[in-house]
Design brief:
CATH topology of the largest domain in chain B: Rossmann fold
CATH superfamily of the largest domain in chain B: Response regulator
Number of strands of chain A: 2
Number of domains of chain B: 2
Number of strands of chain B: 16
Helix content of chain A: 55-70%
Radius of gyration of chain B: 21 Å
Largest interface: A-C, 43 and 41 residues
CATH class of the largest domain in chain B: Alpha Beta
Low-confidence stretches of chain B: 1-31
Largest sheet of chain A: 2 strands, antiparallel
Shape of chain A: globular
Chains: A mainly alpha, B alpha/beta, C mainly alpha
Largest sheet of chain B: 7 strands, mixed
Strand content of chain B: 15-25%
Number of helices of chain B: 15
Mean pLDDT of chain A: 87
Oligomer: heterotrimer
Number of domains of chain A: 1
Strand content of chain A: under 5%
Distance between the termini of chain A: 20 Å
Strand order of the largest sheet of chain B: 8-7-9-10-11-15-16
Distance between the termini of chain B: 30 Å
Chain lengths: 358, 413, 291
Amino acid sequence: MSASTSALQPAAQTKSTRSGDLPFYLWTAFGLIVFPLVFGLPIFNGYGGLATQILIVGIAAVGLNVLLGYAGQLSYGHAAFYGLGMYGAGLTLLKFFPGAHSFALPIIVGVAIATLAAFAIGSLVVRLYGIYFALLTVAFAQMVYFIVFQWRDLTNGDDGLQGISTPSLNLGVVRFDLSAALPALNLGPFGDLSSIKEWYVFVAIVMFIVIAFVRTLVRSQYGEVLAAIRENEERSGFIGFDVRRYKIAAFVISGALCGLSGALRALYDGSAAIEALTIDTSGNFVIYTVVGGVQTLFGPIVGTGLIMWLQNVISAKTDAWRLIEGIIFVAVIVFLPNGIIGSLRKRKFSFAGLLRAK
Amino acid sequence: MNKQLSRGRFLAASAAAGALAVNGFPQVMAATKEIVVGLDLPQSGPYSDQGQDQLRAYNLAIDEINKGGGIMGMPVRATVGDDQTKADVAVDNARRMIERDGAVMITGGSSTGTAVAVSGLCQQMKTIFMATLTHGDETTDGACHKHTFRRYNNAHMSARAMATTLTKKYGTGNWFYITADYTWGHSVTDNIISVIEPKGAKTVNNVLLKLGTTDFSQALGQAQSAKPDVLCITEFGKDMVNCLNQAAQFGLTKSTKILVPLADEYMAKGTGDNFDNVVCTAPFYYKYYAAKNAAAKKFVDAFTAKYGTPPSNGAECAYTNMYQYKGAVERAGSINPDAVIAKLEGYHFTATKGPEYWRDWDHQGISSVLVMEGVPVAERGGDTFAFAKVLEEHNGETVAIPQADSKCKIESA
Amino acid sequence: MTAASFVQAGLNGLILGLIYVAIAIGLTIIFGMLRLVNFAHGAFYAIGAYVGLVVAQQYGFGYALLAGPLVVALFAVFLDRAVLRFFYGKEPTAQILLTFGIAIIVEETLRLRFGGTTQQYSLPQWLNGSLAVAGLQYPAYRIFLALGIVAVVALVWLFISRTNYGLIVRAGVRDRTMVQLLGGNIHQASTLIFALGAALAGLVGVAASPIYSIDPQTGFNFLIPSFVVVVIGGLGSFWGAVAGGIIVGELSALTTLIYPGAAEVIIYVAMAIVLLVRPQGLLGESEIIRG
């Protein structure tokens, strides 16, 4: 694992920012607040709903990055956990507890199912490396796809789930119907605040927590051991770390985050499609993560945003959007092995260092 | 965003105006901006021939409408998305069309799988969905929605329309089914079985294969060794073309009577002589209706002049759907979905077929069903699309699902 | 379930397996020689299929069988010299990502050029009929295809085992540096093997398309099963690819008899068992497990 042109080249260590917790979180919150507004500017031509979708799917990319970036293992099977989160959440409202008007319950069930599956699969796959690891994750993801497809009585097979009605978010004192728009407020060039729905606020808060969680994780002793294992697994084993347990934990965390992403997506879309479990979905997560930059906190989110923007906005202008995606992907691997965010030089602009924070 | 937003505001304003119109103030709306319709149909994958032909028909209809002054003076603009016959892509497309482009109506599609998924989203987003090529019962049965209308015949209608032909021509011996493994395939095969099994037919096997299967040799091999009297191919688009052509290579077209419950011009063209003597149903056949109905002839001629090929039955449904939406908006004096829905429900009209109407309680279009029989290429007079002779034309009313048997409950809002 | 249906399924499985063999052999010799995990191998199949389609319509199917592999071989040489050689022997993860990206670019270029619709080859009439095999009517073309693949596989084996180039290749699989020290032109041999492996995929792209029909994604649909084949057989092993291909073909054909819905997943189950029990594959050597 020493290739200098590798897409998994570790970004330079930036441990010095340990004291900068507060500024980091303030900047992160600021970024999440301005994102849908900036995204709506005419040069980006985005729209409120897309910003929400980007953050939802971005959680899955952040999750994959825990495995790909921080543990150094490439999975082509994370669609399984995303899909299980999706079906878990959807089935909770449609079949398991049809009377439950809970917002939290479907998310908890979806994440729990994805986490259990990630533990079962992770325990088996972590002993392998490289192509063998990647193909074994594909194999297990295909089995999950098969089970969901064939278990027609429960999952509707190829037809997926429809009519998952999003319950309102009940916080005791207040109830939020997340599909309601924010109050009208003219923000000049940024358009009107009412073009953004409450869903975005909710998803942004979830994303903030996810970022904080992954940041704490990576900077903890656990994260440092994981990095040591990535750089030299044998030596870490000799020192006395239980390498296998660390790697399984990374796999489970990453699967759980994909499950969270899928569960949110099911509630947001009101449906779950079998295609979410295919290898195409897994491949997309890989593309998002690598393009944005593995081993960076924001890389996967930026990558998700860029590619989903191509897919949803640029697709209106040219049929070649997916070709552009492929070219960007290859160009990043060849020229920017640390991804877009990982390649931003520190000190070049003020928030660049922050963006590439580990 | 500014542009989008102003359109969004305009729509909000016009919806409000529409609401006013319903309350007794017609003609309130200023005839200024445009009406955006979202065409969500397959441009790639096994059903893409059907999707592309629908797109031609939509473009023709929109051109005609815009030349005639648009809808209430507003030009119609289409935004197009390739649904790849995948439910998640179709839903993403529809959401994007509504949120990004301000589409007020979604239409198109070539699969009941995508139709049901898009229907759910459109209900959630309170946007009208004029489903086009979806033939599975669910679209207007168990999965029906207030905002969804489907004019195309459904599987129940096809099976009931073929009932006499099935027993007379195919008989009540051993039946072998190859079925596309999703809502539509299940719906069609179940309906056929429910028609012929009470008459004494036996099902020897029903092989379910995923949408997009290209190699049917395993299933056809089983059919070959089972030696059934009838092979029923419930596949659509290129899947059906592959299946029937491979069945011919296995010698099955000679040894077994073949039934294709739903076919169109592209499938018949792709299978050529293998479609000879095969019975199918269709909601429209250009040769048949152009000879019967002046409006149909005008449409078929315009389509053929513009694109060089006659319209397939899905294209006809697309064309009429566009005009049905136009008519309903004009009758409502508004694009407000509730007002438009009210003007479609129970509406009787004659377009390119005979008299037909929109049923108010499940939003199924009730129009005639054709039972047809394929002819060899040599008898098509140089036009490979002229693939069949019409055996029977059924009144849709007599073969449609009666309300007592339907699972449909339209939402009140 | 009659004996006839087992014979039928066995024959189907054999032919499907042989198609996998021909694709997987390219994949495995490329890995053996270049230590390159090639996720663009399916793209070679797709390019062959589309080039073949155009040539077949213009000049006939026979010319398509020549043009498909030739164009793919030239494309492979270009790819090798322009990009891939910088990634030889690098981390498999980086190689997978790079070749996956190349596959997307190829797929999308084909989509823009030929459209997303499924396209079909029409065969010459004399190939379109059926033959009586073991008392069954069987499509003639599939029989010819199977025989053709057997011949091609035999030729590739003769090339590797009987020619001087083949000697360099076999030595290169064992120890690249040693070959260079001894004066063998390892770079030229690498490029040649890459082109040969790619051309095989291109040839199958033309030859199998009359059965499967093609769309821009076809290549990717064959890619993952081909990896399943080489992993079961042993990555880098020639006869492993042959054995793996037949096993995978038969497994999915016989499963269809019992439970058609499981025909696809069964090969992944088989691969998972092999990877967990004997990761080097049935006929592979044990040295290459670690990436």
